[in-house]
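Cross-posting from the modeling subforum.

Setting up a comparison between two proteins and wanted a second pair of eyes on the formatting. Protein 1 (sequence, then structure tokens):
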Amino acid sequence: MKSKIFILSLLMSFLFSLSVSAIESSGRTSGVGGGGDGKMIRSLILKAKRERMVDRLIQVFTSQDVIDYATIRNSLYGYALGTTKLENLKANAILQDMISKGFLADLKTVKFIASKKCVDSDGVERAASTTMNRPGADICFNPERIVDEFGPYIQDSDLVGLVMHEFAHHYGYEDTDHFFAAHVAMEYQKKSNNFLVPFNDSFFYR
């Protein structure tokens, strides 16, 4: 009698464990108790925030509002006018040479074009690109790639460095190691801690 009761209890325990496993498996599949709904909601939030950053970047680059200083063109113009000398002598020589060759006029007229594909002279896709030795040439920028490469915190100094790197190409400077861009960005950051693309949310890339 005792052996029958023992065997019956083992059988009931086994069936109970099977039912628990089935419930947990179902929860993981459907999202009940397994975080599936949470992950989907989080994914949608991240997608919406990324799209908002992309839209903001397009506005920052392409806005023609001459009194809006939250744009890359106006920020760069004000920076160049107020910068008589960079601390690094090599970077300063490049900047002064660009200014003497018409950089400020170039900055006012150049077109920033948003594109899903920006290719440099070697056929390599970049976050931004332009034509070497052609002052006034369009500057292509890929807002989605910039968000992915610079996000989740995109400071104006990052964008200033990126764009000045492209402008340097107009005057024959390859800046392959981004030396000039880095020094311009550092000098700019000393004068401004603003965010052209405000996004102070560490949740973005968790």
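Protein 2 (same layout):
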Amino acid sequence: MIKFDLSELPISPRQYQTIGITFLSVGILLLILGIVLAVMTESRRTKHASRVKVSAQECSIKIKALGLNSIQDGETLRIMDKDLTRGMELLASSSQAAALCPNWTLSSYCMGQACTPPGLSMTLQFGEIK
């Protein structure tokens, strides 16, 4: 068995105790800080998801009023229409849809027979204006 003689230590046992309490206090403070940051991050995620949902609903209503249909997939709105017989109307409506949804940016657009699928295919991506 190993025995330690505390009288030979470079600092006193009281100083070791003070150092231990200091490290314990700092550890507890860092743990509390980590918990607070985790809660704040989750709160921001929830608020962001709520803003996306509300904005998508508002945008979908405007798109529907233009005679187009949209499908939401997370932070993406997809607008498709296969009827190319009303080409100029689709072009005008899709341009208006992009303009009427201020928090959404146009990420892809294709209109015509060469598109997959043929017709109008438009994607709006959520990105709040700063």
